[in-house]
Structures are given as C-alpha cells and as structure tokens.
Design brief:
This protein has 2 domains: 152 residues, Aspartate Aminotransferase, domain 1 (Alpha-Beta Complex); 268 residues, Type I PLP-dependent aspartate aminotransferase-like (Major domain) (Aspartate Aminotransferase, domain 2, 3-Layer(aba) Sandwich), CATH 3.40.640.10. It is 36% helix and 16% strand. The chain has 13 helices and 15 strands. The strands form 3 sheets. The chain has a 7-stranded mixed sheet with strand order 4-10-9-8-7-5-6, sandwiched between helices. Strands 1-2-3-13 form a 4-stranded mixed sheet. Strands 11-12-15-14 form a 4-stranded antiparallel sheet. Helix 4 packs across helix 9 and helix 7 packs parallel to helix 8. The chain is globular. Bound molecules: pyridoxal-5'-phosphate.
C-alpha cells in the first residue's frame, strides 16, 4: 500500500481537475472523513450530495458483503437476485408513483439516459411514434452523458460538445431570487413550447423538482408543479422528475416533488439512494406504462451489463431500511429550520451574501457584489471554488457551483450533509463555513477594488 498523502498531478490516474492535488483518504465514519495525514473533515455536502446515512455504516457494508459472497453478479437477462426484487418492492412503497416498477442502473446520468429512452418507448407503445423530443430547462443539470447533457442547460459544461448534443428545447427555469414570478407564469412556457414544436413531436418534459447544482436549492412557487402536471396531461407529454440529488429524504420529504404532491410519470434517482456505498440508480414508473411497452413492443429496448446489480440493490435496500428505522426523512425535516436559523445568524448581515435558501438538509448560499442589483462577482475570480478550497483547508467539505446568474457568472456554495447529522455538528459546519466565507470575501473585495478581477 502506498503511504502517499496526496494524489500526484503527473501520476498514473487523471482526474477532472488536472492541476489540483487531492488528499489521500484514510477512512470515513458518520459525518467525518479522515485523510492519511490524520486530518479530519466534516462532510458538509456528501461530496456532490451523495451521502445519506453517513459513512462507514456496518449494516450497509455487511449487506453488500453477504450479497457479494452469495452472488455478486448475475446477468439480468438470464437471472435475478431476490434482493433486487425486494429492493424494488420496498422502493415502490415510498415513491409517489402508483404501482411502481423500477429499472436499476449505476449512476444519475445513466438513469436519466434510460428515462429519456423509456419516455420514447412509452410513446411508441401508445402509437405515438413521432414523439421523440424531451423539453428541458435552461439552467439545469442532468448528467455527463451526451443524452443527459442534451437536456441539461449549463453552458460551460455543454459548450465543448455542442456538435455532439441533440437539439432539445430549453425553457426558462423558475428562480425566485432573480426572476420575479409574479405576472409571468413560467409553467405556461411549457405549454407554449409544446405548441411551438407540435405535441405530436414531444415525448416528455424533464426537470429537477427543486434545482440542484445549477441554481442551488431554488424552489418554484406553489402553483408551478401542479400547472406543469396539468399541461403534461393535456398534451400527452410524460413528466420526468429528476430526483438524483433531491431524492431519499434530502429536502425533508421522501422526494423533492412531494412538497407539491404531484405524481410524475417517470422518476429517476441515484446519489443518496445507495448512500455512496456503490454506484447505483433507479428509473421508476407505473406498472401500466411497463405493461403498455410489453404489450405493444415486447421488450424495453435498453440494458447494460451491470443493470440490476445485486450488490447495488443490497446496499440500496440497507440504506432504505436505515432511513426508515432511524426516521432520517423526519430528521432532515426537523433540522431544516435549525440550519436555516444558523445560516441566517451567520450570514444574513454579510454584504456579499445575496440569498440563503433551501429545505430540509439541502441549502445554498448565493454570493453577489451588490445586494440591491444582485450583480454577481465575475466568474474569473472563481469565488465559489475558492471558498470551497478554504473550507477544505479548515476541515469542512462543501459543494460549489458557478453560473447561476447567467450561465457563466454567479457563485453558489451548496450544503447537503448526511441525514444523520446532529444539531451540534450543524453548528460546527456553519462556524467553519463562516470562517472560510469571511476570509475569502475579504480577499476578493480587495482584488475587486484593485481592479484585478477581469
Ligand atoms: C439532478 C441531477 N441529475 C443527474 C446527475 C448525474 O448524476 P451522476 O453524476 O451520478 O451521473 C446529477 C449529478 O450531479 C444531478 O444533480
């Protein structure tokens, strides 16, 4: 075993951030991660919001080991494992989809890809073979793969691949902090777009129920999702809800869309559903839609070597049982107002903190140069990344995002700690974050004054 403390920028592995060295992990337990130098980090965001039941849970590890020992892999075309069926049945009890059936894959991007294909096949099965377009939203994120990226709206992530992406219609996203929704019902943009492209061409509409990494916990107004549901029903368009980030209790309800009590036609989730123990994701839809495909087309034309993975299902089932037994959805709901209060106390008076928003254990801070005009800091300052780095130095992990204001500028820090976090640990999180934010913003203020920002 190597005793190196950091990854090497010229080492045998290459990572996304090519010039950046990262600490070598030693172990992780509960809400803390420890590196090889012995430094402890409070996991304030579960990386990109992937940790639900905490690190190092013996119940999950044992369930995975038991399944791996019994049969780690069986090809889903030939066999299945009881745990896969058991997990799907348990999931069906907590999703807002009637008589739910699930198809399992290995990541958020994969389940989004699969959902796009499922929407297309449901339409084909209904005799609507012309419907292939999936309408999406202008600032959104649904994954790395080319289909998922075609329905995402992050300019900086999409630009290098433009020629390779499908041209799907993007409509304006709800963002109460920047767009005043009064006088303009953003849901009606969906209807206008369906009519502009022709309902006979539109298979579905995909969106995050509460914006994830792009707009940082921005939630639409109360009438948005019910109106979207109405429009989808009127024009035979399938509503695909992406709960990859917001699912499994993160926002204080089982699913983000539960805050609006709207039923999607297809729900996808990943990240927290297997708690980070194994890459795993689910596509969920109603039995009747699967049956339509079976009757009209025979098979669901999609699959992968590692779909319906037995060890993945074992981990996800153990995670689901912990969430139920320990009341972690309720814990997230209970801690939401506590975290809100802590964040308000720490940041509400800071001149460069424009907005503090969130639900349950998913919160974001948006930074602006001017609270009146909401002008963002220039992207060249890399503000959110610098705060994230400073927090890491102080032993706190937070997630960052840039581009919320206009696709390029606009800095966000996102919080999404494990759902097992305590009030004391939340106070520790906010205190460390405050130190990092105050220090970096003081530096940035100096740079802006000296005209160093481009
Ligand atoms: C809402 C949403 N959908 C899809 C994805 C893609 O998931 P993955 O990174 O597991 O492929 C993400 C990842 O951040 C996400 O936030």
């Amino acid at each position: 075993m190597s005793d190196k403390l950091y990854s090497h920028p010229d080492g045998s592995v290459f990572y996304r951030k090519l010039k950046h060295k990262r600490p070598m992990i030693s172990h992780a337990h509960g809400v803390y991660i420890y590196d090889k130098s012995g430094k402890r980090y409070l996991d304030g965001s579960g990386g990109p919001l992937a940790i639900s039941v905490g690190h190092g849970r013996a119940e999950v590890v044992e369930a995975m080991a038991r399944q791996a020992q019994a049969a780690a892999f069986v090809h889903p075309v030939t066999f299945t494992a009881a745990v896969v069926e058991e997990y799907a049945a348990a999931l069906a009890e907590v999703v807002p989809v009637p008589r739910a059936r699930s198809f399992f894959l290995s990541s958020g991007s994969e389940v989004v890809e699969g959902a796009l294909k499922l929407a297309r096949q449901v339409q084909m099965a209904r005799g609507e073979a012309g419907r292939y377009m999936v309408i999406c939203r202008s600032l959104s994120y649904h994954g790395t793969t080319l289909g998922a990226m075609s329905v995402s709206g992050r300019t900086s992530l999409r630009t290098p691949y433009m020629g390779m992406l499908q041209n799907m219609p993007h409509i304006r996203h709800p963002y109460p902090y920047r767009f005043d929704p009064r006088g303009e019902n953003l849901a009606d943009r969906l209807e206008e777009t369906i009519l502009a492209y022709g309902p006979e061409n539109v298979a579905g509409f995909i969106a995050e129920p509460i914006s994830g990494s792009s707009l940082g916990a921005a939630a639409p107004p109360p009438d948005y999702w019910p109106r979207i549901r109405e429009i989808c029903d009127q024009y035979g368009v399938l509503l695909i809800i992406d709960e990859v980030l917001t699912g499994m209790g993160r926002t204080g309800r089982w699913w983000g869309i539960d805050h609006w009590q709207v039923q999607p036609d297809i729900l996808v989730s990943s990240k927290g559903i297997a708690g980070g123990y194994v890459p795993f994701g689910a596509i969920v839809t109603a039995h009747e839609k699967v049956q339509d495909i079976a009757d009209a087309l025979g098979d669901f034309n999609h699959g992968g070597t590692f779909s319906h993975h037995a060890v993945g299902a074992a981990a996800a089932l153990a995670v689901l049982r912990i969430i139920q037994q320990e009341g972690l959805v309720e814990n997230a709901a209970r801690l939401g107002p506590v975290l809100k209060q802590e964040l308000r106390q720490a940041f509400a008076d800071h001149p460069y903190v424009g907005d503090i928003r969130g639900r349950g254990l998913f919160w974001a801070l948006e930074f602006v140069q001017d609270r009146e005009t909401k002008e963002p800091f220039p992207a060249s300052l890399g503000l959110a990344w610098r705060i994230r780095q400073r927090a890491l130095e102080k032993g706190l992990i937070v997630y960052w995002s840039q581009g919320c204001a206009d696709g390029q500028n606009g800095d966000l820090i996102l919080l999404g700690p494990p759902l097992i976090i305590t009030e004391e640990q939340l106070a520790e999180l906010v205190a460390l974050l405050r130190e990092a934010v105050v220090e970096v913003l003081a530096e940035v203020e100096g740079e802006v004054r000296l005209g160093q920002a481009v």
